[in-house]
# Entry
Amino acid sequence: MNILYVIPARGGSKGIPHKNIKPLNGKPLIYYTIDVARQLTTDDHICVSTDDDEIIDVVEKYGLKVPFKRPHSLATDTATTNDVLLHALNFYESKDIVYDLVILLQPTSPLRKAIHVEEALSLYTDSLDMIVSVKESHAASLICKENEDGFLEFCYNHTALRRQELSSYYEYNGAIYIINIKRLKEKSLRGFTIKMKYVMDGISSIDIDTPLDWILVETILNRSKSTIH
# Structure
């Protein structure tokens, strides 16, 4: 299969300014995902999609050519991942480069490893819309809502006495999306119904969204470094 690895990295980040290129344990956050992609393919099949000149500069200093600058209309808060992927695929198809699969790797998952992507990819068949990485979730045992009387009641855990008695639930962790391009064009991501999970552990699943997430990941990386040495 011809596989395109897309790393989306828009410039606007409100929670953590310049998040995608902010140094994490000594190197820009986006480098962790580029390193993973480079273990899986060659540079000409890695596409960093960004609207930001500073991100382009940081990525190209790492030796990876950014093939295009994403238009501003695809870098707003309302722009969808679906549009970003189709824009990238259209760029390559305009150059007569056709892919069978697109693997989306978000730079906010720096603890995701190449082995995770390889294991997820081994699950893929053409009958699927997508393989998506998840982590086990215990939220179902805790999520509650306020009823008409103003009192809390559980949404899912109506009968189980212990968490272990609940059905298994999963959360998308944002680390890996393996997408059937034919289905993407036919149905869009929102229309996908034939999806298979790839389960990752909690630490590898951390998605950096807040300053607290950043501190947690940096602590884990520092501890790993000290253990190795």
In short: The first helix runs from residue 29 to 40. The mean pLDDT is 92. The helical segments are 29-40, 53-61, 81-93, 114-121, 181-187, 211-228. The chain has one domain: 3-135+170-228.
